[in-house]
Specification:
Blueprint: H1 3-15, H2 18-21, H3 35-41, H4 56-69, H5 87-108, H6 115-141, H7 164-189, H8 193-216
Helix pairs in contact: 5-6, 5-7, 6-8, 7-8
Amino acid sequence: MKRAPLLIMAAGLVAAPAWAVSLPAASPDQPRPDNAVILESLAPGESLTAGSASLVPLMAADMQANQANGVDAPATGGSDVGKPIDDITFVKQATESGYKEVNSAKEALPQLQQPELKRIAEMLVSDHTGANARLAKIADTKHWPVPAPPVSGPPPSGTASSDFDAKWTAEMIAGHERSVSMYRAQAQAGEDQDLRRYARETLPTIERHLAELRRLQK
């Protein structure tokens, strides 16, 4: 009579499918699945028997895999680098941005009150004029169109408003933020090798302008 339980257990092992028997044993540190969760995963009318108990490790592993697949990957952030525009569009926008910075700085020089802002305006005129000249040379070798410089208007007359320095600084910061984003994208993923090199070499200058303007913003 004592052999009866042993014969029943042996019969259960024989009845279990080969793939269920070959599953690796769960690690001692691995939490056991809740019985209520296992029962919910059974088909209607199915119950846990001696043979179906061998399905527990398989169901637990499948549940863990489904949970892992349902978790979204964390979004990569912290960078304002966008998709680069095409090369000809970059030449157009970068050139026009350079013209705007130069003209704005020239017009602001007689009206700025802070000596530090005057120094930055002079730096903008010099740096952006040189950058536009280098960009135009690259475009010329590739037969790409370059926007013509805008016609300069008459110099501003009258006394500047008391908040002119603050408004000009805010305008320059916004323009340089857009330029930094555009140049970063071109430097990292632009199509043309010469334009990528130009963007990489010019980007630190624009970033320095932006840092100086932000430092003096009030």
